[in-house]
Amino acid sequence: MTLEELLAEQKRWVKNLRAPSGAAGRYQIIRPTLLSLIAELGMPLSATFTPELQDHFGLALLKRRGWNQFAAGTLSPRDFGNRLAREWASFPVLSRQQGAHRTVERGESYYAGDGINASLARASEAEAVLAKVLNALNAPAPAPAPSPEPTPQPPNPKPGKHWGWPGWALITGFALLIAFAAAAFTVRF
Question: Is residue 152 part of a domain?
Answer without folding.
Answer: no
